[in-house]
Write a structure and sequence with these properties.
TIM Barrel; Immunoglobulin-like; 2 domains; eight-stranded parallel beta sheet
Length: 470
């Protein structure tokens, strides 16, 4: 009897270990060949569509000047070299004509960097995964990379200059302790790497590939945000070689998710299509992700004022819209050079988290609106199992109609209503109509839940005014 129980226990532990290693919905035994037909046939690991909400962290030497006239402050080095640009004028005024960008790495002190605190904020925001810059287009590495170099210095990673800490490892460790799925951002090209400037083939063979394999092997990321691909075709980057290694041999092969930036033609290959500041208006026909900052920049921009940051309502509405269109939201924070997440960004994350504590069932693990591509003036929908969630954006009164819904509605209430007070509903000529609860606020996303007699079945009517998102 004891031996039988012991065998069952061992078998159970093996199953748990296998599931933990591969992630949800993966196919660990499958092998992929170096061609896009094979690579694109890889099933999307199930954790991604379950998670729905992630945090993006963009941090590096550009966080020292932390300035852009408007837009991406992380492009500081590149913009400061453009003759007559606003960034060049700012740089010369603040630091002088002869001050090289590489000197900013020394001022990236991270003296107030507390990765545990960062991850506490991320958990409180309701995010399920985190993607952090391993290196940006300036090539600066936030881990102990043996391949870090730029035009005028070999001291080009955070373990030997600036923080003199493996800041990426510290954040990964803190996040994993809190159950966050940790990922990396990785730039294929580097503006001023000596080999990139002189010999592109050697850059790819001697720098890009070994560096990519080094960071992936050391950190085993759940998500890899590729970028900087637009300067060359995937053949130049030898992306098929990288993808084949990643999905067949890397330690994260069974659960890693990548975006579509393997070469300059996007939205052709990759687990997830990218939408950068796209407004959340994308198609659920392929897995996708909306990535954006809380303001107009990813890296911290001290030139931004209060009006440059989205409100709590705008961000929650964005999350709602993205999920209604079947995507994930990757929302960025840009830390300061000394390692602080600006308080206004912390505030926005905490407020999103408070909303998700109540309305999380309408986000996590949901599928896109069953009425897609129909659009509603009052908001959007998500679905899960035998439930449809109606996301009401702002203050609306009266009734809303759900044309094309074939199911019987068994119950309807506001998700935040602990008493589950029934909402009035009726059917006119086969169209379900729901009476909205009173007291809806202008700057709020209210979720109503409909319990159905089965999984949602909708005949989407062809209505001229209801156009598909672009």
């Amino acid at each position: 009897m004891f031996k039988m129980r012991k065998c069952r226990m061992v078998a159970g532990l093996l199953v748990v270990a296998m599931c933990a290693g591969v992630g949800w919905g993966a196919e660990p035994a499958r092998k992929y060949t170096p061609d896009w037909k094979s690579i694109d046939s890889r099933p999307l690991p199930g954790w991604f569509n379950e998670a729905k909400f992630g945090i993006f962290v963009v941090w590096g030497p550009y966080s020292v000047p932390a300035w852009a006239n408007r837009g991406y402050a992380e492009w500081y080095w590149n913009h400061s070299r453009r003759k007559g640009s606003a960034t060049q004028k700012f740089h010369e005024k603040m630091y002088g004509k002869d001050f090289p960008y590489e000197k900013f790495a020394e001022q990236l002190t991270a003296k107030l960097y507390k990765p545990e605190y960062w991850c506490d904020i991320f958990v409180r925001s309701g995010a399920k995964y985190v993607v952090t810059t391993a290196n940006y287009h300036d090539g600066f590495c936030l881990w102990d990379s043996p391949y870090s170099k730029t035009k005028s210095t070999d001291k080009w990673n955070a373990t030997v200059v600036g923080p003199k800490r493996n800041v990426l490892r510290e954040l990964f460790d803190a996040g994993e302790k809190r159950g966050l799925k940790m990922g990396i951002y990785y730039s294929l090209y580097e503006w001023y790497h000596p080999l990139y400037l002189t010999d592109r083939d050697r850059f790819v063979k001697e720098h890009l590939h070994p560096q990519f394999k080094d960071v992936v092997t050391k950190f085993k990321p759940w998500f890899i945000f590729l970028d900087g691909e637009w300067t060359a075709d995937y053949k130049v980057w030898k992306s098929l070689e990288l993808a084949t290694w990643l999905y067949n041999e890397s330690p994260c092969r069974d659960y890693v998710v990548t975006n579509d930036r393997w070469g300059k033609t996007r939205r052709k290959h990759g687990d997830v299509y990218s939408s950068e500041y796209g407004g959340g208006k994308f198609s659920p026909e392929h897995p996708w992700q909306e990535d954006r900052g809380i303001g107009h920049s990813y890296g911290y921009n001290r030139n931004e004022g209060i009006d440059d940051y989205d409100s709590e309502y705008a961000l929650i509405k964005m999350l709602s819209r993205v999920c209604g269109n079947g995507g994930n939201l990757l929302l960025d924070v840009g830390p300061t050079a000394d390692g602080r997440i600006p308080v206004i960004m912390q505030d926005r994350l905490i407020r999103i988290g408070k909303w998700l504590k109540v309305n999380g069932p309408a986000i996590y693990g949901t599928s896109h609106s069953p009425f897609w591509p129909m659009k509603f003036k009052w908001g959007t929908c998500t679905a899960k199992g035998r439930k449809i969630y109606l996301h009401i954006w702002g203050k609306h009164t009266g009734e809303i109609a759900l044309p094309g819904l074939k199911n019987k509605i068994l119950a309807a209430s506001a998700l935040a209503d602990v008493r589950n007070t029934p909402l009035k509903r009726r059917i006119d000529n086969g169209v379900h109509t729901i009476t909205l609860p009173s007291g809806l606020r202008a700057e709020e996303v209210t979720v109503l839940v409909l319990h159905l007699d089965g999984t949602p079945k909708v005949d989407v009517p062809k209505v001229k005014s209801e156009k598909s998102p672009k």
